[in-house]
Write a structure and sequence with these properties.
Strand order of the largest sheet: 3-4-2-1-5-6-7-8
CATH superfamily: NAD(P)-binding Rossmann-like Domain
CATH topology: Rossmann fold
Largest sheet: 8 strands, mixed
Number of domains: 1
CATH architecture: 3-Layer(aba) Sandwich
Structural class: alpha/beta
Radius of gyration: 17 Å
CATH class: Alpha Beta
Distance between the termini: 49 Å
Length: 234
């Protein structure tokens, strides 16, 4: 059995590399990343959250671009997504997780239901996606996992205090994973976006999407000797 696992792991090293942009409001970023990853001949998976997609739902597919919907708050659905990649002999080399935009509801007005829903789409889904992606990356000891975060994680502002706490949680997760997996050859990093770069409106900005894509690609292409665990705002 150990020999079979070793053979399978060796085979995975020769799978076609792919990049996965997953989360909320990712269309503009995916478009910009598509041009970047051509440098390494990677296939792009654009994975949008859909709470009805309990299994990966392929909307469209080209030779180098696959548009998928999945419930990023479901462990089974997220695991099925990465199992789908491997079944197609696609090895994740770069994964970018984009959480839901911050909620500006005043602290005293926000409801427990809103808090729970927001956490599902930030910290919880971040953990699920990271766990599934890193499981595959660890087998071949290579890959980059990037959390798109927020300056609110370290600079909380009114009325985004609830979102600030959630972003701080994602940042702590990123730091913990970086300490664990960077020594194993997997680059884990947190990219803190400026506060005005996180709204749903901003997510559709071509210029902003290009700036974020440049930062993500820079992080992915860093030499191991200069890996950073966190990138500042812009």
């Amino acid at each position: 059995m150990n020999l079979l696992n070793a053979i399978k792991t060796l085979q995975m090293k020769y799978y076609q590399g792919c990049a996965v942009v997953i989360g909320s409001d990712i269309a503009a970023l995916s478009h910009m990343m598509r041009d970047k990853i051509k440098q390494d001949s990677l296939i792009l998976y654009q994975v949008s959250h859909d709470d009805t997609a309990k299994q990966p739902r392929i909307k469209s597919g080209l030779a180098d671009f696959i548009d998928v919907q999945v419930d990023t708050t479901s462990p089974d659905a997220v695991n099925a997504l990465f199992a789908l990649l491997i079944s197609k002999k696609h090895q994740p080399k770069l994964v970018i997780f984009s959480p839901e935009a911050n909620d500006s509801t005043p602290t005293l007005a926000i409801t427990p239901t809103q808090i729970e829903s927001s956490w599902q789409m930030t910290g919880y889904s971040a953990f699920l996606v990271a766990q599934a992606a890193l499981t595959q990356m660890q087998k071949v000891k290579v890959g980059t996992f990037l959390f798109l975060g927020s300056a609110l994680a370290t600079q909380p502002m009114t009325p985004w205090l609830a979102s600030s706490a959630m972003q701080a949680g994602v940042r702590a997760l990123a730091q913990s994973l970086a300490r664990e997996f960077n020594p194993q050859g997997i680059h884990v990093a947190y990219i803190a976006l400026a506060h005005d770069a996180e709204s749903k409106h901003a997510a559709k900005s071509t210029d902003l999407a290009m700036a974020i894509a440049n930062s993500c690609w820079h992080a992915h292409k860093q030499s191991k000797q200069t890996w950073a665990q966190e990138f500042g705002t812009f």
